[in-house]
Automatic annotation (TrEMBL):
Enzyme Commission code: 3.4.21.89
Transmembrane annotation, as ranges: 28-45, 97-119
Domain of life: Bacteria
Broad enzyme group: hydrolase
Keywords (A to Z) from UniProt: Hydrolase, Membrane, Protease, Transmembrane, Transmembrane helix
Residue ranges occupied by any Peptidase S26 domain in the UniProt entry: 99-310
The protein's name in its UniProt record: Signal peptidase I
SUPFAM superfamilies: LexA/Signal peptidase
Gene source species: Ramlibacter aquaticus
InterPro entries documented for this protein: LexA/Signal_pep-like_sf, Pept_S26A_signal_pept_1, Pept_S26A_signal_pept_1_CS, Pept_S26A_signal_pept_1_Lys-AS, Pept_S26A_signal_pept_1_Ser-AS, Peptidase_S26
PROSITE patterns assigned to the protein according to its UniProt record, in alphabetical order: SPASE_I_1, SPASE_I_2, SPASE_I_3
Amino acid sequence: MPLLTGAVLAAFVGYAGAWYFGLVEGNFALLLFLATLVTGLYWLAERFWFLPRRREAAARLEAEAASRRAQLQAQGISQVDGGDVSQARQRILMQPWWLDWTAGLFPVILVVFVLRSFLFEPFKIPSGSMVPTLLVGDLILVNKFTYGIRLPVINTKITEGTPPQRGDVMVFRYPPKPSLDYIKRVVGLPGDEVAYLNKRLFINGKPVSKDPVPDFFDEESMAYFKQFSEVLGEHRHRILNDDNRPAFIPGVENFPNKDNCRYTVEGVTCKVPPGQYFMMGDNRDNSLDSRYWGFVPDRNIVGKAFFIWMNFSSLKRIGSFE
C-alpha cells in the first residue's frame, strides 16, 4: 500500500505540475472530484479495515504483556523490565504516512468539494473585460445554486433554481473551449433581439439607458476612458467606451446560430436562440464576448458572481457589486 499510495500521490502532483507549467489542459473540478473519491476510499479502508486491525494488534500486545506479568508474579517476580507497553501501543495505533496523506485529508477535501461544487466557488479576474465593475486581480465568489444546482464535472442541472436575469454578472464555460471559465454580463435573454450599434445597446428595439459619468482612469494603461452608467433589468452598473475603437466588430468567428446575427459597419444585431444567452463585458471595446463567438447555452452556466472577497492591491475593493 505505501508504494501504491506513493504512485497515486505522485500522479496527482505530476498532473498539477504539468497543468501549472502549461503542458496539459487542466480541469480543477475533475481533479478535485478524483481527489475526493480517492481519499474517500482510503478513509473508508482506514475506518473499517486498517484502524480495526491496528486496534486488534494493540489489544493483543496489552493482553500478552498482562499475561507475562501474571506469569512472573506467580513466580514471585513483581518488577519486570519493559512492562510498560504504552509507547509501543501508541506506535501501533499511529496512522502511517500514506494514510495521513489520504484518509487524513479526506474530511478537508470533502468540505472543499461540497462547498465549491454546490454552494460557492472562488475565481480570480484575469483580464480587464469587466472593468470598471471588476478589476484585474479581484478575487470573487460565485453563487453555484442561484441558477440551479449542477453536478460537478458533467455540469448537469439537478434543480431548476432561478433563471439568469438581464444584467446579472455570470460565470460560464467558454463555448469555443468549455475547459475555460469566462465572466461577462447577461445582456440578452432567450428570445431577445440584442443590437449593439454605434456603441449603443438596444434590447428588443428599445435603447438601454446610458448616462455619462466622470471618465475612468485605467492605472494599467495610464489613460482615461469615457464612462457611462447603464441600467439592465434591475442592475445599474458602469461601462466603458474607447473612442479609438471602431463600432464594427472585427474578427468574428463562425459559431452555432450565427445566422441569427447581422453584422454591419455600425455593429451587430442578434436574435438570442431558446435556452441561450447573449453576454457582453462592461469594458465594451475591450471584451471578447458574444459579439465575437456567439451565444452561451444554459448547459455552460457555472454560476452568478456577486462578491469581491479580496484584492491584494486594494482592500477597498472588498464588497458586493452590481
